[in-house]
Design a protein that fits this description.
Elements (H helix, E strand, L loop, with lengths): L4 E2 L5 H11 L4 H6 L3 H21 L3 E4 L5 E6 L10 H7 L7 H7 L1 H14 L4 E9 L8 H15 L3 E6 L4 H7 L3 E8 L4 E8 L3
Parallel strand pairs: 4-5
Antiparallel strand pairs: 1-2, 2-3, 3-4, 5-7, 6-7
Helix pairs in contact: 1-3, 3-4
């Protein structure tokens, strides 16, 4: 199996393309950006900045050549992300999309995601923030390349791993890797359920 690679700044655009296309039909994305014809362009504007910030922090990982799968992992001890003035400037195009309105509509979902994270993973842990594989490249083991090595490191360091999802079908998939569903909550008025998953200390 080909190993994952640490992404560099030259990977920002392909990483943004992968993660944006992967999240086109995500329940939260669909709720935030209900108009599918403009959804991809809005997602690309967001994920270009998101990918750049994470890659600069050493949190972006990819699989496949050309890039077909992307994961953003926060490891224990890494500092919180800092957004530079330059990065803030790059977010300005989002003001002219549905994204700010969508973010406001989804604020209770996002707050629940943050609440579960703080509640169920208060100690140092590996956090899988986002994982995406191009639709045409699924079923080829790319997700495994982007998950298993980090779970192995978590086991070696004797720390937990944590992730969350709003896609019900992702729950058994993560359970396949040893995560356990530790909490879930339906957010009234959104049609979205937040699922919290944790791989406990070995």
């Amino acid at each position: 199996m080909t190993e994952h690679k640490l992404l560099t700044l030259s990977d920002v655009e392909p990483a943004a393309q992968v993660i944006a296309r992967s999240f086109m039909d995500d329940p939260l994305t669909s709720f935030m950006l209900p108009f599918k014809r403009t959804r991809l362009s809005s997602l690309l504007k967001f994920f270009r900045v998101y990918a750049e910030i994470n890659i600069k922090a050493g949190r972006g990982f990819g699989a496949g050549g050309p890039l077909q799968g992307v994961a953003f992992w926060k490891s224990p001890g890494q500092d919180s992300l800092s957004i530079s003035v330059k990065s803030i400037g790059k977010l300005l195009p989002l003001l002219f999309t549905m994204y700010p309105i969508g973010y406001f509509r989804a604020r209770r979902v996002i707050a629940q995601i943050d609440e579960f994270h703080a509640q169920h993973a208060p100690d140092p842990h590996y956090y899988l923030d986002n994982l995406g594989v191009l639709p045409g490249s699924r079923g080829k083991g790319l997700s495994s390349q982007l998950i298993r090595p980090f779970l192995k490191m978590a086991e070696e360091q004797k720390v937990a791993a944590y992730t969350d999802t709003v896609t019900k079908s992702n729950v058994p998939y993560y359970e396949h890797f040893g995560f356990q569903l530790v909490d879930e909550k339906f957010i009234a008025g959104t049609g979205i359920t937040v699922y919290a998953l944790k791989k406990a200390l070995p």
